Amino acid sequence: MTKTMKDRWEHGGDDYTVRLLSFLQWKLGEVGASIEPLKDGKWVLRSGGRKWFVKRYSSEKRFLLQEMLIKELLQGGFDHVIPMHPLHQTGVISFEGSVIGISYWLETASDIDYADASDRQEAWRVLKGFHRASRRIQSSWVEDVPEFRWIDKWKKRMTLFDYHLSYLQHFIAPYYLSTYHEWGRWALEELDALGPYKGRRCMVHGDVAHHNFLRGTDGRVHLIDFDLLSRSPAITDDIQMANRVLPYLDWSLADVMAIPSIRKYRHDAAFFLGLMYPSDIFREWNRFIREGQSYREHVWPYLVQITLGQFHQRMRFVQELHSELRRIITHL
């Protein structure tokens, strides 16, 4: 059996889907159920006269944490998450060494677009609601949710970028790459000097990209995909969200600080340093190195845009951040 055939048999492709369908038909007691692949490890299931979303999880622990999170969020009145299939009440669904999760299928309206001010506001409102709701969960399983050591993650990301710097200079002029590297180095150095962040902890989502917010046909926005669920002060999600929307605000510090959920950070040096760290640049170029030629060709225009097309706006933005940091330090 070739490697390609083996991968199809074990992890995906038509053969795996056929076997999964047979298993789900048996598990549901419904021979008329059907499934259709969406992407690797994800399917749409038609059963009981409705559609369901099926996902393969990398570990039982990861699934169970998400299952308990969603259950308790809904019980606590936070209805911006999608419930699991009642079948999960009977126990974990295991198939060929993997855990299978089944949740309700959400029929969606228009996509969330961070270029739209009302969409940004609604996504942020849902995210902050999630943070507040998660703080009210007092169950013992919360202790099993991993800590998000964000500074360590950022250091590793920059170290990997630094390792590939000489290779990346074949694609982008050294001046730009070294400038981004210097911003990241300085931000991490100053964050280290501040010491551990003392903000109130909650559960954080970890990936606040626009596609993880789904708008149902009733207009309600749902937060999905908790694979990166961890515990941390909310600032980690807020920094990531701010960095996601800043390109749509022309890298205006005044505009991002005018967002209601962000105003509380106006005297917080760690927040401004977090905005200075060029997380998107390091993340996307590291992935460029990791992926194959097809992905590189597809993502190249986007990489050029964020690295070069926004450079002067970001330079001005970093200068504004330095001014704010001087203001904060002066008043300490």
Automatic annotation (TrEMBL):
Gene3D superfamilies: 3.90.1200.10
Transmembrane spans: none
Entry annotated with the keyword Transferase: yes
UniProt-recorded Gene Ontology molecular function terms: transferase activity
Annotated Aminoglycoside phosphotransferase domain residues: 121-237
Keywords annotated in UniProt: Transferase
Name listed for the protein in its UniProt record: Aminoglycoside phosphotransferase family protein
Species of origin: Rossellomorea marisflavi
